[in-house]
Amino acid sequence: MDYLWWHVPILTAPMLIAFIATVHVFVSHYAVGGGLFLAAETTWAHKTENRQYLDYLKSHAKFFVLLTVVFGAITGVGIWWVIGLASPLATETLIRTFVFGWAAEWVFFVVELTAAYLFLSLWDRVTPRDHCTLGWLYAGASVGTLILITGITAFMLDAGKWPEATQAGMNGSAFWLGFFNPQFLPQCVARIGVALMMASTWVLFHASIFVKSEELKFLIVRRTARYVAAGVVLSAIGILWAGAILPEAAKLSLMRAAALNVILGAGVIAAGFLLFQLFILTARPQWLTPASGLAVLCAAMGILTSGEFIREAVRKPFILPECIYGNQVHVSKVEMLRQNGLLESGVWTKPYVTEKFPHLVDAQTGKLVLEQARPEDEKALGEIIFMHHCGGCHAQEFGYSGLGFLSTTSEKGEIAEMLPRLNSQIYSMPPWCGTAKEADLLAVYLESIAKPHPFQKSGSQKSAPQETETQKGAAHAAN
Q1: Which strand (E) or helix (H) includes residue 320?
Q2: Same structural domain, 320 and 370
Q3: Per-residue pLDDT of the chain (479 residues; tens, 9 = 90+)
Q4: In the 8-state DSSP scheme, what is residue 358?
Q5: Same domain, yes or no, for 369 and 318?
Q6: DSSP-derived 3-state class of residue 317
Q7: Which domain holds residue 432?
Q8: Does residue 307 share a domain with residue 160?
Q9: What is the pTM of this model?
Q10: Less packed terminus of the chain by CB within 10 Å, N or C?
């Protein structure tokens, strides 16, 4: 509890991260796959001296650079800004652990930006050989950034032997153990496949709007189709590989959650639809219209979105595996918080409670005495605990995973009984990180926002229907 929580009403901070990150990955994967596409296709067009195709590639490169370099960079900075506010402890740990990786990624990024600018601005001003070299330089730098980022994002799903190395004080090897984690290679294969798929569908969408020549449209569809197919195949291999070696907790989360299975099914359907559309367009390139171009692009985005959502969801209860829980508590601090109290131990909670509720501060020790809380104080104190213990994943009454609806109970006191056994009841939840009194205070707040039980009247459940004499007789005869 070293940081102040950033409260995002209704949407919640993690979902705000997800929104910005999803928009960013649509463009960032296009930046990688588009670099490979433009480098390869420009090389082929120069080799065959296809001036019409070169002119189209130049127009697409303008769109590509504007979208990936400008919009992609803005959303990338947006991700850093949001995760720094929403998950400060996890962000700090990632920076400290992978500082060398982040530095290398920035070097690749600078090379990428420079090469992209030169590739476009010197299009007709350098020799074909030099122009192609610039294109492949950009492609190589963009793939380098993808590999470096994938090592870190894959670590967030499966840290491998990194936790043991850090606990043993092996900080020198911690970076390499964390980076080359079990998920690294399969996720690299999947993301390169997705990058090719996203880039080629962006090309089809762009061509569907700006290309009027049937001959050129035929060429673009036929040449782009191979990138879509290769992308789908590579991403399928990578996803199946990554799924086969998921940590057991992640596999269980995926199998138990109906919503995740629905999202997984939606991703499979999107992949099937994309391949079907690809088959139709390959056979009838003249059917590439803005509507069909948008359809294939949306299908590719659907595949990527479903994969990203599942990858994030199966990490619970951790933000960083075996290191930091979803409520920004380090695993080593749980017992301390249970003994000393969340409000007492928090860098920000203690001064806040001291200012707002001075009568709860012991004059001699300066410690909080929550047992002195008045009835009118309990709900407000419970809300503070909610913000720091639950607000990282849950909205309050309404919104994403709102506890106003999830806290519906039959009897008063059930929530207080459940909280100390939080992670044993629902293993995807972090453990309770507070005292018994704080659990009672949080329960008071949650009960105040909980929606009424649908089968509860006047504070008690409906009584079970009485067994009739006929039913009793039938049961006796059966025995």
Answers
A1: strand 318-320
A2: no
A3: 678 888 888 888 888 988 899 999 999 999 999 999 999 999 999 999 999 999 999 999 999 999 998 898 889 989 999 999 989 999 999 999 999 999 999 999 999 999 999 999 999 999 999 999 999 999 999 999 999 999 999 999 999 999 888 877 776 688 899 999 999 999 999 999 999 999 999 999 999 999 999 999 999 999 999 999 899 899 999 999 999 999 998 998 888 888 899 999 999 999 999 999 999 999 999 899 999 999 999 999 999 999 999 998 899 899 999 899 999 999 999 999 999 999 999 999 999 999 999 999 999 999 999 999 999 999 999 999 999 999 888 998 888 888 888 887 656 678 888 888 888 878 889 999 999 999 999 999 999 998 887 776 544 444 444 444 444 444 444 44
A4: G
A5: no
A6: coil
A7: 331-454
A8: yes
A9: 0.88
A10: C
CA distances from 179 to 94, 241, 325 (A): 11, 18, 20
Asked if residue 371 and residue 257 are part of one domain, the reply reads no
Residue 462 lies in a domain: no
At residue 373, φ and ψ (nearest 5 deg) are -65, 135
Closest to 233 (Cα-Cα) out of 282, 201, 193: 193
DSSP E strands in 92-235: the ranges are none
Q: Which of 261, 296, 325 is the last residue of a domain?
A: 325
Question: Are 62 and 160 within one domain?
Answer: yes
| Domains contained in the chain, number | 2
pLDDT of residue 100: 92
Tokens of 93: 């740990």
Residue 4 half-sphere exposure, CB side, CA atoms within 13 Å? 6
On whether residue 3 sits in a domain, the answer given is: no
Tokens of 2: 């070293």
- 246 and 108 in a single domain? The answer is yes
Residues 146 and 204 in one domain: yes
Question: Do residues 300 and 227 lie in contact, with contact meaning Cβ atoms separated by under 8 Å?
Answer: no
On the CB side of 464, how many CA atoms lie within 13 Å of its CA?
A: 3
Domain membership flag for residue 8: no
CATH number of the domain that residue 434 is part of: 1.10.760.10
Do 310 and 347 lie in a common domain? no
What tokens were used for 58?
């130049």
Residues 319, 87: contact at Cβ < 8 Å?
Answer: yes
pLDDT digits (tens, 9 = 90+) for 141-176: 999 999 999 999 999 999 999 988 887 777 668 889
